[in-house]
Amino acid sequence: MTTSDLAQVLFTSPLQPSDDLSPDKIRTAIDDRLCSCDGDAAGCAAFVAQEAGDHPESFASRMRWALTAVATAYGR
């Protein structure tokens, strides 16, 4: 999966930027979320698209956070 794919999965997780996040917590959250989507990242992508439409004011900042968190957790 690409950094963007992983960020979309993290975006849909319950983690928040204000949480005390370690790389392990980020990877675990992504793994848990993928398991709940039966390993289908497309399901997470659909939720991301819905959130972008429903909450455009917070979408960009949360996606930036997700991209940065994934880069930190996976060293990409």
Instruction: Bin the helical content.
Output: over 70%
Structural class label: mainly alpha
Q: Based on DSSP secondary structure assignment, what is the total number of beta strands? A: 0
The low-pLDDT segments are none
Beginning-to-end CA distance, first to last residue: 12 Å
* H-E string: HHHH
Structural Rg: 11 Å
Describe this structure in words.
With 76 residues, the chain is mainly alpha-helical. The protein has one domain (3-74). The chain is 74% helix and 0% strand. The chain has four helices and no strands. It has helices spanning 3-11, 23-36, 41-54, 56-74. Helix 1 (3-11) packs across helix 4. The longest helix has 19 residues, at 56-74. The radius of gyration is 11 Å and the shape is globular. 25% of the residues are buried.
Topology:
Layout: H1 3-11, H2 23-36, H3 41-54, H4 56-74
Helix pairs in contact: 1-3, 1-4, 2-4, 3-4
List keywords for this structure.
76 residues, mainly alpha, 4 helices
Describe, in short, the structure shown:
This protein is an all-alpha fold.
